Amino acid sequence: MADELTRRSVGPVLAGWMAHAAPDRAPERLFEEAFARTMALPQKRAYPWHRWALEGLGPNRSRRLAFAGLMAVLVIAIAASLVPQFAGNEVDGPTPSPSRSPSTEPSASASVLPLLLPGVTVKPTAAITLDAPIAFATDGTTIWAFTANSDLLRIDPATNTVAASVKLNLSSDNFQGIAGDATGLWITDRGANKLLRFDPKTLRPVTSIDTVALPMGVLVTPSTVWVASTRGGVVQRFDPKTNKLTANISVGPAGPDGPHLLARGLGSIWTSIPNIGSVVRIDETTNAVLATIPITGPVTGRNRPCGGLAVGSAAVWVTTCEDSWAAQIDPATNAQVGQIDFDWDATIAMVGDRPWIASMGPQLRRLDPISRTFDRAITPGAALARGGVVFIAAESLWVLDKDAKQLLRLPLAPFAG
Questions:
Q1: Within-domain flag for 373
Q2: Tens digits of per-residue pLDDT, 225-274?
Q3: Residue 247 is part of a domain; what is its CATH number?
């Protein structure tokens, strides 16, 4: 009887106590400060209903256990109802607005980006099976490829097939450079220190040109073929009309790990040079070295830029040799302004002046040059297992699936905007 009376009296007692003790309004600043300090301290929280739950029920063990079980069920039900709401906010909620302009100094640590993002699924329009491709070239209408089996291929985007193929007898197969346009197809023979020219349609050999030691990167512009020499410390310039050397441009010391790959943009030729840890910018008209840009990375001694280069109007991107990260260069100041840590070795293609990344995992992701975070993702259905080389040709985006040994063709429209 006393137990019953106690339970019935709890409500009126609490109401009377609150009316007597609680002020008319909370003093905001004092209340917030006191609450923050209280919650930060280690303490055992005790509320009025604890005594009711544990003492008011008397010594009956079964009744106490039943009450505890009921409370546990209520807590679980409330938590379960809140989980979808919080999860949805985490995935689909608005992202913080980026700053108006990128920092002029690289951050102390690289921005670490997530492996997968919510994205749009786009079905490939074609999948071309290729055996061990290691390099690609395109002039925007035709695609050429060189494989680890020494096969030189021409891919026709009109039919999505390999339209021509020849077997080459090179001194080595790895790390060959390839570039082409409607007037000529060029490929390096590193071991023989040669630049080979082929007919871009039939793939028949045209000529062989001597180069400085270990040529690698090749770039074709309307009036010039550019070659990076990894042992000579130079970028060579050839006239495609005469097949003659017109300039040797010194960009670093001779020796191992010199100039690797090349890119064109903003009136300049850009080359990555691991042995000096820099990207060099060359004036396309005068051959003058405009800047030697040091590249720093998140780990000391692992900042060698030797991967692909991508040039946009507001940023130049270069990937590195050892780690899965890239450096961002401001072409207005010729200085590195940021670094981005990818999940795996990555390649970059520019679409609408924005960098798209192909890397480990089944997605292509767009990088925001201001916040240096991914802001868009596209999944090529279930087709892409592991992304490799990515480039633009014939109004499409092409990405190599390394695991499936397929070159996937995707419509370009979803990548724009």
A1: yes
A2: 999 999 999 999 999 999 999 999 999 999 999 999 999 999 999 999 99
A3: 2.130.10.10
